[in-house]
Amino acid sequence: MPPDHTDDGARAARRLRMQNPDLGIVLWSQHVETRHSVELVATGRFGYLLKDRVLAVDQFLDALDRVASGGSALDPEVVARLIGRQRADNRLAPLTPREREALALMAEVCTNVGIGRRLFLTERTVETHIGSIMAKLGLITIDEQHRRVLAVLAYLGGH
């Protein structure tokens, strides 16, 4: 995005979010920028899609609908880059390998049904894993916070 052709879009999104915290934002970019993206993911109502990986109009429209509904839509490549950005925290050490897989799929914005399909688990088993993840990460139920987002942020910061 002009003028710098670097992180201009992410910086603009960050400024827009500061001005209007409830604004849904979808970055549609050729490249992955991580410096501003972690903050935007944390606030919800955010999508980050890569132009060369959105292959169908339905896929793009689905992402827009999720963000408009208050959710997130992150390309797996964006998630991978965000994960690689920070690895210092050992907060995830108590998680089992299966819980880490479920958390990684949460970071890809999968629902419980989606996680179950990808890991060949029942929805009830996925719910059990997610409950365990939340407990091990110390994420209690608070009305003003999205525990799934907090869990994903812990994953992105500590994986």
Automatic annotation (TrEMBL):
It comes from the Bacteria. This is Response regulator transcription factor. GO terms for biological process: regulation of DNA-templated transcription. Transmembrane segments: none annotated. Residues 88-153 form the HTH luxR-type domain. One of its GO terms (molecular function) is DNA binding. It holds the Pfam family GerE. Keywords: DNA-binding, Transcription, Transcription regulation. It comes from Kribbella capetownensis.
